[in-house]
Design goal:
Strand content: 25-35%
Structural class: alpha+beta
Number of helices: 6
Mean pLDDT: 87
Shape: globular
Order of helices and strands: EEEEEEEEEEHEHEEHHEHEEHEEEE
Number of strands: 20
Low-confidence stretches: 1-5, 7-22
Amino acid sequence: MKIASFTAMALCALMISTQVQATKEPLRLKQTSQWNVDYAGERCRLIRKFGEGEEQVYVLFDQFGPGEHFRMTFAGKPVKTSIVDGEVTIQFGPEEGEQKVGFYKGDLGKEPALLLQAQTRLAAPTPAEQAAIDKAPKGEWVELAPIAPERQSAIRTLTIGKPLRRSVVLETGPMRKPLEAMSTCIDSMLASWGIDVERHQKLTRAVEPASSPGDWVVSRDYPVKMLSAGQPAIVEFRLSVDAQGNPTSCFIQLTSRPKEFDKAVCGALMKRARFIPALDEAGDPIASYYRNTVHFKI
């Protein structure tokens, strides 16, 4: 399993916000809908509602390709916070470790929301894996050990902690079957891209960047209008890559902000990104794809 993202930084500023954690009992919410899988062409979304009325919370898992990582969004009044940009703690329980993930404050329809900045998965990286992630050059992939199906089945809850004044515990139940449904959706999505799913499952080499992805989208690509407005963004993208390693088209899989960012990302990537092509089971070059995430941050 691999994890990577890269950031276009226009300015560096550190703002530290604090919020006192009230000593309240966690708000425990039972599921009030089934898990539903939504297919949107460039992403698969797993969504479920917990609680009712003023205490209802929606959790969304967005996945953009094969693997174990997904981007999460929490929406509902119980996850409302005054912090605009910070870290949220999440934990899939009872056995998995706590994870700290950056978030942006946002909304989903009329509901306040926490939009996680990085993709995550059910299990936090081991200390050794985290050390490798921290040391890796910007934008480069780091291998993570796969999560066994037994661990997926052992999940019972998802806890959302700081910066919330009152932690929220969502009674998810076992996660194996919902994630299997997502995997089926992902296979259908790849097929719609023109990918031979069975052939790709036997690749001897996936598409690899020929240079550091961190050099593909840089600070001067930050849309001037958005920079002036102090507007951050997260952009998930996919590039079609031919058998020679050249990008042939760019697709925005999910974006959190105005279209100016989408144009900036695809323009920069088509100009600068080059690849070592994927190889099929016989070792022959094959047309494939590459996907990643760009953060625009002030």
